[in-house]
Amino acid sequence: MSNETLLEVEGLKTYFHIEGKVAKAVDGVDFSIDRGETVALVGESGSGKSITSMSIMQLIPSPPGKIEEGAIKLEGKDLLSLSEREMMKVRGNDIGMIFQEPMTSLNPVFTIGEQLAEPMVKHQGMNKKDAKKRAVELLKLVGFPRAEETVKEYPHQLSGGMRQRVMIAMAMSCDPKLLIADEPTTALDVTIQAQILDLMQDVKKKYNSAILIITHDLGVVAETSDRVLVMYGGQIVENASAKDLFTNPKHPYTVGLLNSMPDVADEKERLESIPGTVPPAHNFPDGCRFAPRCKHAMEACTEAVPKLRENEPNHHVRCILYEDQGGEKE
Question: How do residues 68-117 score in pLDDT, each as one tens digit?
């Protein structure tokens, strides 16, 4: 892994305007990803994880959604300044995406080979013959033993794990610099999950790309990630290396997430849970957005939104408990 910054997200705000209400789905998000790094974006449903990834890809439905502020820089180039035509060249070419449900992402009326070949013809100018040959190579790369037959098959003829492998092959077909994986293992059984995660890491190493993996499964995070971004209420509340996050979590929300994980070495009869639910994005509380669910909450927590601060080297936390320690995250 290098220290060369590949992606920078600065002050990102993505809002949805619905029936006179403003849903602040992503509200001032900052993070970066280095080349060769795997970064996990975690949090409960409704935290803003998928909207963050869709904002990077500029796939926010407009209306009602809109990127209100911020910058998204890939190798220093601000993607938000690009036209739709220019952005189409970035999608699939520089940034590949694996969506949560492959059956809805693959077209049922085209063969696997046709769908794999299309981005290579479109983005890399390959002729159809070379693209289909490359499609077979990609299927072999992601573990298909009978790739020559699979290119002629349709999505409904494949299992869920096989379809997800096709999605990975498609995402990697143009050798992207960044791979975004949105809940890539949710619908798969545990054995296939492990195979898919190993495959993503192998592909990353082969192409020296970076991965942003979006998940609510902390087991997946522990298995794959170099660094973890914990998201709550449209904001990053903790940013640390995976090792630091699991051994020394700081934000009460992160602690709650880790305590809710089953542990075979722990003989607790009941898992801990975080009371309440993520507030709707159009009705966030004043101050800290986690305060209504936090056992450490005090009156000051409701008065101002805490800033994301570096509490220890390369460990940032957004919590009043740590505001007297470290410096503000710019």
Answer: 999 999 999 999 999 999 998 898 789 988 877 666 778 999 999 999 99
Would you say the C-alpha torsion 153, 155, 161, 166 has a positive or negative sign? Answer: positive
CA dist 72 and 70 (Å) reads 7
Looking at the chain, the whole-number percentage of residues with pLDDT higher than 90 is: 59
In 64-100, which positions are buried (b, 16+ CB within 10 angstroms) versus exposed (e)?
A: ebebeebebbbeeeebeebeeeebeebbbbbbbbbbb
Residue 108, classified by CB atoms within 10 Å of its CB into exposed (0-12), middle (13-18) or buried (19+), is: exposed
pLDDT higher than threshold 50 for residue 326: no
Structural domains of the chain, with CATH = 5-94+176-328 (3.40.50.300)
Q: What is the DSSP string of 294-306?
A: -TT--GGGGTSPP
What single-letter amino acid sits at 78? D
- Collapsing DSSP to helix, strand or coil, 71 comes out as strand
Do residues 12 and 72 make contact, with C-beta atoms less than 8 angstroms apart? Answer: yes
Q: Does residue 292 register a pLDDT over 90?
A: yes
- Alpha carbon separation from 204 to 1, 72, 74, 76, 85 (Å, rounded): 10, 21, 17, 21, 27
**Cα(136)–Cα(134) distance, rounded to whole angstroms?**
5
Looking at the whole model, is its pTM more than 0.85? yes
Confidence of residue 327 (pLDDT cuts 50, 70, 90): very low
The DSSP-derived string for 145-184 is TTHHHHTTS-GGGS-HHHHHHHHHHHHTTT--SEEEEEST
**What Å distances lie between residue 263 and 81, 117, 160, 223, 269, CA to CA?**
46, 44, 28, 15, 11
Reported as a single tens digit per residue, the pLDDT across 274-285 is 888 999 999 999
Tokens representing residue 194 in the block? 């492990």
Query: Region 244-259: what's the mean pLDDT?
Result: 94
